[in-house]
Amino acid sequence: QVQFVQSGAEVKRPGASVKVSCKVFGYAFSNYAIHWVRQAPGQNFEWMGWINVGNGNTKYSQRFQDRVTVTRDTSANTGYMELSSLTSEDTAVYYCARSSCGDDDCHSYAMDIWGQGTMITVSS
Amino acid sequence: DIQMTQSPSSVSASVGDRVTITCRASHGVSGFLAWYQEKPGRAPRLLIYAASYLQSGVPSRFSGSGSGADFSLTISGLQPEDFATYYCQQAYSFPPTFGQGTRLDIK
Lengths: 124, 107
Description:
heterodimer, A: mainly beta, 7-stranded mixed β-sheet, 4-stranded antiparallel β-sheet, 0% helix, globular, B: mainly beta, 11 strands
């Protein structure tokens, strides 16, 4: 059974960084991309970036380009998203999701499996 | 970025009803359109991809149509488990963007 398990909720101070993990089960991890999408309270989904797990290539939304790093550990079947220089506007639920990939284009595919989400609260 | 606008923002319906949600893109997205279902505390669920293809395991009462800039999601014969929030998402142009959601409530 395909399943994603994300790390637990965290509270961070403004200016800090956070790293969210997404462990996957039930499929060949390297054959797909992992995307990161967030949803602030009462707001819309916002796509942040993806990693092609097979070759490690990444692509980020321009909005987060300078602050987000997406990585993966293929030996642990786990993807990671690190967001730095946090502000209160980064308070949101962060989701990992899977998609297929073309030739270095993983954003033209629907995201077919999603994690349960990780709540990140930024507060002083 | 391509803006996705859903309508209505919310709708009330009864079990057994047929409901249609629309999604309009600010620029054409060909058929690169997906629909997702979201329930509180649950992982979002892919329902429809490539505008009209039913994701494996999704009941056939869900259907999608459209191309270019105008799309719709129809649920025929609402079931109690269908009351949720629905989102469209375009995958044609980078970055992927989502509609603001349509909340489907029980009447």
